[in-house]
Amino acid sequence: MAYLTDIEIARAAKKRPIQEIGEKLGIASEHLLPYGHDKAKVSQEFINSVQKNKDGKLILVTAINPTPAGEGKTTTTVGLGDGLNLIGKKAAVCIREASLGPCFGMKGGAAGGGYAQVVPMEEMNLHFTGDFHAITSAHNLLSAMIDNHIYWGNELEIDIRRVAWRRVVDMNDRALRQITASLGGVANGFPREAGFDITVASEVMAILCLAKNLEDLQERLGSIIVAYRRDRSPVYARDIKADGAMTVLLKDAMQPNLVQTLENNPAFVHGGPFANIAHGCNSVIATTTALKLADYVVTEAGFGADLGAEKFLNIKCRKAGLAPSCVVVVATVRAMKMNGGVAKADLGPENVAAVEAGCPNLGRHIENVKSFGVPVVVAINHFVTDTDAEVQAVKDYVAAQGSEAIVSQHWEFGSKGSEALATRVAEIADADMANFAPIYPDEMPLFEKIETVAKRIYRADEVLADQKIRNQLKDWEEQGYGNLPVCMAKTQYSFTTDPNRRGAPVGHSVPVREVRLSAGAGFIVVICGEIMTMPGLPRVPSAEAIMLNDEGQIEGLF
Q1: What is the C-alpha to C-alpha distance for residues 135 and 170, in angstroms, rounded to an integer?
Q2: pLDDT higher for 332 or 558?
Q3: Residue 508 pairs with which residues in a beta bridge?
Q4: What pLDDT was estimated at residue 102?
Q5: d(CA 186, CA 435)
Q6: What is the rounded average pLDDT for all residues in the chain?
Q7: 416 close to 403: Cβ distance less than 8 angstroms
Q8: Smallest Cα–Cα separation from 241: which of 254, 224, 228, 229?
Q9: Higher pLDDT among residues 464 and 111, named by residue
């Protein structure tokens, strides 16, 4: 049987004017700032007006470690949101915006798939409402003002060997990882080593996604540490007098974006920090606004639960005072086979033994999420090649872990395919079974926080960090930053720092290569193994297949 492609389905969508989508959540048209007919920003004035509303139930969707077989976390998030609306619940979806880097690199689009998509798909995966461009501009304005301050006399006595603020661009470009800036003579300033990160790894991105309002945004931007003096004392963005102008550039980007699913249900798409090199969740302001407007809010955290969910629960929930009522862990039969040792080319034939061999990866994630005190449901994202015996093997394994697995066919049937999952998730959320708490306290020393995540979530035996890194962490504690959470930058493909080790490995070590203080965002970035904050393009980037067809439509974005 031939199926329509994701892009064919998206183009056939019967979208409603964005004002009608806003009405479903009680947002009057004067509080929507439209970008065309099918997307709009929600005004800060309206957001302020609903703060006394009762919060709805928060449902987090996460997944096993990603494999080339595909898991469909965003697809499940959208499908579950549509399913909740189908069974009569007032539900909204909250997901991240897509970065141009992975769109033109390896990952492709990020708007769901099949009959569980958010539209307009092409705009969401490209420039959308310009939020990422605003973040890039604000970040690089600060970079320019630092170098300009040094050029005009360096009144703050910045040690140009210790400028900590890099530049960013929303593209995978390995050539920019390490550069030499200000070459070309006296008129261009003082030559120094510098570099670029991808925009989604910017502290400005993290700050926008964690800020509660414009005042909080400017306070956080001002707290960014941009450099150090010779006596090692920090220089802040507010010392450079950049925080006000940066806030101006981010004023509109701070307002959440409202779009719709294929079934015309509301979806907030806002912010987009990576989950392997940042904290991997959509914005706090989008999530908290949705909770004031809907009875159920379905949101996702990037990559596997060892990264996205861990950071959602330890960082975002801690910072924003959120507590999920239920967590959905997405898995596929195909991915279980890959974790069980089957090559991608051999996933078609039934192989129950391989499914059973791969299930410990799923079991590890279930156990980890439960350790936060939150009930877990497994969504088996159904593929048409799955056999009954393979699906039953996953169900039996999950039942033995004290949870339940529900087949969801949202990709093929939309909300009708996710009705059973939505019904069970709503029952669990309504039962108030969660007793959520982060897995480490604020007052725990920073290195112990790193060890806690490595040992309890990754099941590592030890964390390897040289004395320089340990001393840096102690210095930050003495400067008053010891109460911050840690944001682990690690490969998404494995519980280890080796992307090729699938399954549920134990007895490994986690090498820490570098630590970075994100004082404005309010966390310590811990860079582990070979992870890069500026990814490179693959041998055959997706960009090679992206083009306009004869009708002027975009091809190859999915």
Answers
A1: 10
A2: 332
A3: 460
A4: 85
A5: 61
A6: 95
A7: no
A8: 224
A9: 464
Return the bridge partners of 381, or none: 408
- In 3D space, the residue among 167, 174, 225, 226 whose CA is nearest the CA of residue 201 turns out to be 167
Please give the backbone phi and psi of residue 439, each rounded to the nearest 5 degrees, phi first. Answer: -90, 0
User: Is the pLDDT reported for residue 108 higher than 70?
Assistant: no
The SS3 call for residue 294 is coil
Helices (H), 418-519: 419-430, 446-456, 467-476
Looking at residue 153, its amino acid is G
Cβ contact 58:324 at 8 Å? yes
Q: Where are the alpha helices (DSSP H) in 383-418?
A: 388-400, 410-413
Q: Cis peptide before 511, with omega less than 30 degrees from 0?
A: no
Kindly state the helix (H) or strand (E) to which residue 297 belongs, with its residue range.
strand 296-300
Q: Which of residues 208 and 103 earns the better pLDDT score?
A: 208
- Residue 34 pLDDT: 96
Q: What whole-number distance in Å separates Cα of residue 377 and Cα of residue 205?
A: 31
State residue 331's pLDDT score: 96
Residue range 60-77: mean pLDDT, rounded: 91
Measured between alpha carbons, how far is 186 from 151 in angstroms, rounded to an integer? 9
What average pLDDT score do residues 361-369 get?
97
Report the alpha-carbon distance of residue 249 to residue 230 in Å, rounded: 32
Residues 440, 478, 147, CA angle at the centre, nearest 5°?
Answer: 105
Structure tokens at 535: 């990814």
Position 455 pLDDT exceeds 90? yes
Q: Name the nearest CA neighbour of 498 among 530, 521, 539, 453.
A: 530
| Cross-strand bridge partners of residue 112 | 117
In the numeric block, which tokens belong to residue 549? 């067809």
CA distance 322 to 339: 33
Cα separation, 487 vs 314, in Å, equals 9
Assign 477 a pLDDT band (cuts: 50, 70, 90): very high
> Is the pLDDT reported for residue 424 higher than 90?
yes
Place of tokens 């926008």: 208
Which positions are annotated as active-site residues? 73, 75, 96, 107, 275, 303, 383, 411
Q: What's the CA angle centered on 229, arms 225 and 234, to 5 degrees?
A: 25
341: left (phi over 0), alpha (psi -120 to 50) or beta: left
How many residues are present in the chain? Answer: 558
Cα diameter, the chain: 73
Q: What secondary structure letter does DSSP report for 422?
A: H
In SS3 terms, 36-90 reads as CCCCEEECHHHHHHCCCCCCCEEEEEEECCCCCCCCCHHHHHHHHHHHHHHCCCC
**How far is 158 from 225, CA to CA, in rounded Å?**
12
Q: What sign has the CA pseudo-torsion 452, 456, 457, 461?
A: positive
**Is pLDDT above 60 for 98?**
yes
Q: Is the pLDDT of residue 6 over 90?
A: no
Q: How far is CA 164 from the centre of its chain?
A: 24
